[in-house]
What we know:
- The protein is mainly alpha-helical.
- Helix content is 89%, strand content 0%.
- Mean pLDDT is 75; it is low at 1-47.
Amino acid sequence: MRKLIALFMLAGIMYVPVFANAQEASADTAAATQAVETPAASPTVVDDEIVAEEQSFHQVIKDKFIEGDPLYMTPVLLCLIFGLAIALERIVTLNMATTNTKKLLLKVENALASGGIEAAKDVTRNTKGPVASIFTQGLMRYSEGLDMVEKSIISYGSVEMGRLEKGLIWISLFIALAPMLGFFGTVVGMIFAFDTIEAAGDISPSIVAGGIKIALLTTVAGLIAAMILQLFYNYLVSKIDSLVIDMEDSSISLVDILVKHKLTGK
């Protein structure tokens, strides 16, 4: 019996350190697993990645421009720059040419009723925009009859329409020219690729990759430039159409006001 108790005591003494070591090993393993599952965040690495993402777009554009060969990419870029410059200038000019025609017609009618033709001329001369200029030209011919007023309005309306459309021909030129220059670079790049194949006597991808890359990049650049300029061109055309319709409607209203003024004798 004593031997059995001693045996159990010996087994218990041997089990305690083994159990303690097992618990420590288990705790270390759990800590290591947790460390692997939840790695410490590195603010520096995250910040560097954010900065790299912010700079990647501009760097990619720059790299692709160089890879496409500046000799062929520069003309396309110039078409885009000049086209955008003309488009922005036209947008500013057309927005400044926009006039509240209803308010202007009301002022002209009130001026005619209170001060006659000269007062109406003062109102139109002090108002900016093509509509006011057309009104001024019509009022200047009032003494020659309403027929001359209508002819003057129609003639000067054509002049103002030409001024509104000024510069659109250049934008349309750049829209057509940019893809052409891009396709020119494409043809040159393919010729370069075939020359390389002929010189090497082999059609491996590494040989023709340079020429094909130039061909594709110049094509993409030309198409992107043309699409951007086309959007601006369509906006300008719609803006001009709106102004022309406004001029025509207001001119008819002006003639009606002058007829009413002549009939009433005021």
